[in-house]
Amino acid sequence: MIILDGKKVSNDIKEEIAAEVLKIKANGERVPHLAAILVGTDGASMTYVNAKVKACEKIGFNSTLIDLPEETSEAVLLEKIHELNTDDAIDGFIVQLPLPKHIDEQKVLMAVNADKDVDGFHPTNVGKMALDLPSFLPATPYGILELLERYNVETSGKNVVVMGRSHIVGRPMSILMSQKRKAGDATVTVVHSRTKDLAEITKQADIIVAAIGISEFLKGDMVKDGVVIIDVGITRVPDETKERGYRLAGDVDFDSVSPKASYITPVPGGVGPMTIAMLLKNTLQAREIHG
Ligand code: GUN
Fold first, then answer.
1. Each residue of 122-150: pLDDT tens digit?
2. pTM
3. What is the 3-state secondary structure (H, E, C) of 157-180?
């Protein structure tokens, strides 16, 4: 069993990007600038956004964190987005999800200028992705492709089961892995909460991408020997033995699944760090687009 070490690979990618930043600086040009909007005080979202900003600092990007209170109106948020859309110093920005219930997420994502949409969530970018045109790929699926590629995991002709149909992970993942591309050319099945005989389907899978958000859902008796496991889940599970009162669990029951797996991502240290690295890669791409 080989661990797909997202922490190591993401550090390699960050070093590659940092080298590009040095070149930009040496040419006397402006370094990439990423902004992030966070609405509210959700613990996990604050952790993720802070990690994104810290990663920017580490590789030499400029970053701006716009921290808005939970009760921020949709109109005020849209105004902030408009400011970032029209600010030439900002190459790309993200609105951290989930948003508070009183804000229409789709309306917000559609307000982001597609050329600055480094999360790849705008319908223009989703459409381009589906049509195999150049676009910003959503960071988590992009990170998974990169991880599979860098470990030379064969995907061509393989049975891939994507668990979950979210707009952020499951849906784009299923599209990307079915395409003619590196870490693609797979036969993809999407399973979800209404799927019947789920275990019968997962047992046929050569590669499983678990992105359903239910901790330790996928057990050893639901997979075949030699399976490749990509665990996207990251849930806080109460744990009194830990000082912070919780532990982080994936969607995969690591103890029962890993003995059967040929490759597996750990949680934490698997997909999570890759997501951040690919967001930075998209921001570098945005900087190149804006010239
Ligand atoms: N919430 C969970 N994942 C993501 C992500 O990749 N981007 C944003 N903006 N919010 C998220």
1. 999 999 999 999 999 999 999 999 999 99
2. 0.97
3. CCEEEEECCCCCCHHHHHHHHHCC
Of all residues in the chain, the percent with pLDDT exceeding 90 is 99
**pLDDT band for position 291 (cuts 50, 70, 90):** confident
Kindly state the average pLDDT of the residues 17-43: 97
Assess contact for 14 and 277: CB atoms under 8 A: yes
The ligand 1 atom nearest the CA atom of 275: 6
Between CA 179 and CA 188 the distance in angstroms is 10
What is the 215 CA–ligand 1 centroid distance (Å)?
18
Distance CA 29, CA 20 (A): 12
**Which letter does DSSP use for residue 110 in this model?**
H
Above 90 in pLDDT, residue 290?
A: no
Residues with CB under 6 A from ligand 1: 94-97, 119, 139-140, 168, 275
Dihedral of the CA atoms 207, 211, 212, 214 (nearest 10)? Answer: 90
Please determine whether the domains at 27-114 and 139-272 fall in the same fold group of CATH: yes
- Do 38 and 96 touch, CB atoms closer than 8 A? yes
Domain boundaries, the chain: 27-114, 139-272
Q: What is the DSSP letter of 102?
A: T
- Give residue 221 CA to ligand 1 midpoint distance, Å: 31
* 56 Cα–ligand 1 center, Å: 16
Class of domain 139-272: alpha beta
Query: What is the CATH number assigned to the segment(s) 27-114?
Result: 3.40.50.10860
56 pLDDT band (50/70/90 cuts)? Answer: very high
Give pLDDT, residue 107. Answer: 98
Q: Within 10 A of 218 (CB to CB), how many other CB atoms are there?
A: 27
